[in-house]
């Protein structure tokens, strides 16, 4: 097969970052599938049955599918159309509006709201009447990018029902709701689909596509001179692939930070992982490229570990692609880790690291201990390398590789998350985020560290207190850098309605730091995404509050203001203020780093 081109590889290549990637669009994918005679990549459609039940019922409601470009909105529309009896030929005509008659009702399909002309958009007035219940024989299924949805409703004639429908859609978008009682509309925001949950399923579909059978007859599918496409596939499909696991971890952290990746970007990532190479056309391999890169000894440049980060692409191209922008925010490869660097650089000769060097580097003769890395390392150590950047680039690639190959049993010992910008990211996933999702308690040591970090940030003092939250001011400004006047201590352990805990909001799957003041008042919550968790943890470990993230520092001070406001509300309910005498409590840090206070009476 190396002499020609596999139809499957050619098809998969279209999903990658090439100048014209037709497979990115549902409107053309069916035509390409028929032309190349390949089995399409089937993606789980979690809402399909709900949509079919709705439109098949006696009292269907209109549906809007929204989200970012590439979330699968058109794909959903086409599948619903087909399942309800619509013909593929009619859909393939690419009409802006299609209609089906089902159970005496008209179902109007609009597969891209942005493509409608001004006249066509008048259909939305009819939809507004349907939502209001005035047109009970007509319902709609509309796909629209979230940025264009409200604009389309604003650009049509503003009837009473249009205004009501537009306000309803806006409320559903802002509040993240799917429906409002009494209104004949469902809104599915596909951007809320978790890319970390979807990714392993998409990987599985790609790896088990029948198209790979074409590769069995390739002369480079086995032996010493192996095709890097086959090698990359093998590394992905191995049992409990660490590549899939750790990539899923990174995507989970992106979701935690409210960075969503649509399906289109996941497919682009997978295609690039398998086919990426900087030395071929479009920087994506074809079957006919394989003999050339083997002959030139350039197989190592097709490393799946480099391709994950888009290293096969030019910087300008990589910077325009969302998935690589997000993954590269973790700084993997650029961040250093002393232990791992010692293994890579000195492991061959240092008995302390030799066993790990042989296990993690020497055993991988394709992407690990390749000739280029060994020779450049030797030149670097002997001072013969005039261009040290060559070796440093190879070292970066090896750090990237090790992040995805170091076994779980020694990942804490080798501190693999020190290879990222977020040193506490692994801990956040393992000890906080996932236990909360599994309805387990978070170990108190992590809550204590959060309290310690908050105390240091809000007081501006190097305190060690971790069993109580310190609320203090400077006397006239709650956001002053140094706050020495004590307002209150809040107990970490539950005590008469007081508490500090980490909790999960099941409705939006977000983690919050919650501080309770009394049984009669709601807690004050801080959304604890990865960056804030990292910030508070680093401050607790000794970093200056403004050194890691100025934005996080200001967020915590704003949170402090909310805590002080809630404290004032509690005081009013308890009516414990003395109108004649008040005591100022000045904070002092003792030799153990714990806060003490001295009271000054003010008449």
Report on the structure:
This protein has 603 residues and is an alpha/beta fold. It has 26 helices and twelve strands. The strands form three sheets. A five-stranded mixed sheet has the order 2-3-4-1-5, with helices on both faces. Helix 6 links the parallel strand 3 and strand 4 (138-145). Helix 9 packs antiparallel against helix 11 and helix 9 packs across helix 12. It is flat, with a radius of gyration of 29 Å. Residues 577-581 have low confidence and may be disordered.
Secondary structure category:
alpha/beta
Radius of gyration, Cα only, in angstroms? 29 Å
Give the count of helical stretches.
26
- The counted number of beta strands is 12
Mean pLDDT: 89
Tell me roughly what share of residues is in helical segments.
40-55%
- Uncertain residue segments: 577-581
Number of domains: 4
Let me know the largest β-sheet.
Answer: 5 strands, mixed
The percentage of residues in β strands lies in 5-15%
